[in-house]
């Protein structure tokens, strides 16, 4: 199969350019861009790490984290290497901030075959930043669609509009990191672009992708009430109210506790402060969950009667109030107590 690099611009002003993300890198011949995996080879785009997989595991879908998508199911998680951000607290820095990680080459067909062995066939592109390998992702996603497997994207969402549209066209569910709500922090600390991330999330909603958002709450960086309120307001602005008379937004927001890692040495997130932030956010969002805390429990209630639909203790999942029905070729979730539509997607 011919591998065709995309999102590269040939030199017009004497500089070769990659147009995948807001960096629009102009690497010298033989060099890579900020992501370390997209190269300039004699004035042409090159993707030498096409199909290079650094991690592959069977995970609970809740680990992505996705709480409102196929609860209790397993998913094949696949990771690569490289990233177009440089978050100093990255918990996967050993694969995201290098091009020297160990791994093996796999074809899209091999990955999809592995995913099809799951009881619920689905594959997550995750761990490091998958979008810097967009050519491989698109090939995998097309093969997955043909095979009847679902595509799940776990990403920082920091790419330009054309790339966002191409990948979201083939995405069934996504969890996007909304790392903060400060353009300055994105640019100076994370090496990213806030508006690109917001645009990606807007486009995901427009495309009908099941969307959840995650914010790693880092003390002294993004944990102020004002900043978290801004994040909540944005997520609320994307959500569609329940019913014709209005209601509360439904895009789930995961507030995750930070722990010391890589270059960041701030104290870990205080669990009580994280719980307080979640409580405040629930005034604007119907479903806010806390994560990365030992012994954590999260429940999803029925929006109509309040019965517990899904109960989670870490990654152990129970569905005491949930019914899955097949209707007109589609599977839908309902409350087993009152029969109302459940805010979950299959």
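Q: What amino acid sequence fits the structure above?
A:
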């Amino acid at each position: 199969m011919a591998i065709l690099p995309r999102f590269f611009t040939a030199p017009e002003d004497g500089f070769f350019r990659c147009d995948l993300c807001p960096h629009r890198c102009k690497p010298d011949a033989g060099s890579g861009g900020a992501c370390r995996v997209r190269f300039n080879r004699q004035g042409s785009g090159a993707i030498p790490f096409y199909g290079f997989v650094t991690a592959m595991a069977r995970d609970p879908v809740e680990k992505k984290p996705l709480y409102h998508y196929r609860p209790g199911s397993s998913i094949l998680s696949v990771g690569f290497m490289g990233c177009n951000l440089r978050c100093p607290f990255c918990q996967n820095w050993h694969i995201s901030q290098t091009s020297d990680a160990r791994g093996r080459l796999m074809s899209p067909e091999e990955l999809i075959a592995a995913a099809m062995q799951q009881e619920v066939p689905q594959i997550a592109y995750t761990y490091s930043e998958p979008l810097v390998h967009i050519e491989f992702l698109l090939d995998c996603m097309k093969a997955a669609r043909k095979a009847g497997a679902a595509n799940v994207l776990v990403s920082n969402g920091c790419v330009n509009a054309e790339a966002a549209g191409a990948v979201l066209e083939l995405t069934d569910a996504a969890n996007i990191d909304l790392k903060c709500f400060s353009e300055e922090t994105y640019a100076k600390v994370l090496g990213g672009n806030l508006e690109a991330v917001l645009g990606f999330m807007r486009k995901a909603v427009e495309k009908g992708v099941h969307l959840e958002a995650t914010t790693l709450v880092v003390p002294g960086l993004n944990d102020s009430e004002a900043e978290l309120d801004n994040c909540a307001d944005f997520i609320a602005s994307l959500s569609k109210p329940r019913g014709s008379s209005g209601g509360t937004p439904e895009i789930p927001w995961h507030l995750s506790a930070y722990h010391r890692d890589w270059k960041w040495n701030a104290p870990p997130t205080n669990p009580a402060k994280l719980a307080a932030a979640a409580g405040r956010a629930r005034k604007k969002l119907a479903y806010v969950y806390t994560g990365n805390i030992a012994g954590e429990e999260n429940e999803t209630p029925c929006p109509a009667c309040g019965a517990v639909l899904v109960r989670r203790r870490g990654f152990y999942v129970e569905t005491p109030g949930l019914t899955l029905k097949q209707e007109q070729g589609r599977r839908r979730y309902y409350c087993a107590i009152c029969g109302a539509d459940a805010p979950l997607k299959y």
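Q: And what stands out in the fold?
A: The chain has two domains: 52-293, 297-346.
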